[in-house]
Amino acid sequence: MTQTTSSVIESPVKKSAVNPIVIIGALFFIFGFVTWMNGTLIPYLKIACELTTQESYFVTFAFYIAYVVMGIPAGKTIKKFGFKNGMAIGLFIMAIGALMFIPAALTRTYGVFLVGLFIQGTGLTVLQTASNPYITILGPAETAARRISIMGICNKVAGALAPVILGAVALANIDQLTEKLKTLAPDQKVLELNELAARVILPYSIMVVVLVLLAILIYFSSLPEINTEHEDETVAAANTDKTSITQFPHLILGVVTLFVYVGAEVIAGDTISLYGTSQHIALSTAKFFTSCTLVSMIVGYLTGIFCIPRFITQQKALVASAILGAVLTVCALLTHGYASVFCIALLGLANSLMWPAIWPLALAGLGRFTKIASSLLVMGIAGGALLPLLYGYFSGKYSAQSAYIMLIPIYLFILYYSTIGHKAGRSNVKS
Question: How many domains does the chain have?
Answer without folding.
Answer: 1
